[in-house]
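Q: I'm building a small set of examples for a reading group on sequence design. Run inverse folding on the following structure and report the sequence directly after it, with nothing in between.
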């Protein structure tokens, strides 16, 4: 099982980026996928998650209305569309996965916990600066 995040870069405030998370060795529809980020000197925090089987998504309050998580089952990819980016969005972004074992309600509660996930990608740097 491998995850690879990509799509980061330098963008001006108000700009957009789309991050991609490529999965290999497993089928995404059987897994819950989360996006996390870690800014310098701060703890890793949950940004968003998707449970493909339940069609459910959740967003951190700090990104709600600006970020959108989506999945392309045919390509075994998960995306994070980030709009109206702010300097405080600067961080390394990681995608993570765990094979679905519990009902959807469980993941709605636990999605932002690092311990929920078994697999992590290597991270992609997002820098929002003028």
């Amino acid at each position: 099982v491998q995850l690879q995040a990509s799509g980061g870069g330098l963008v001006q405030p108000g700009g957009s980026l789309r991050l991609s998370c490529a999965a290999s060795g497993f089928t995404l529809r059987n897994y819950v996928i989360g996006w996390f980020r870690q800014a310098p000197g701060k703890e890793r925090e949950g940004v968003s998650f998707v449970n493909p089987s339940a069609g459910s998504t959740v967003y951190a309050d700090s990104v709600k209305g600006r970020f959108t998580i989506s999945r392309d089952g045919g390509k075994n990819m998960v995306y994070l569309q980030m709009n109206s980016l702010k300097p405080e969005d600067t961080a390394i972004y990681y995608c993570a996965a765990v094979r679905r074992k519990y009902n959807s309600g469980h993941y709605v509660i636990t999605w932002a916990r690092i311990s929920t996930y078994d697999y992590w990608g290597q991270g992609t740097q997002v820098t929002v600066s003028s």
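The chain is about 5% helix and 50% strand.
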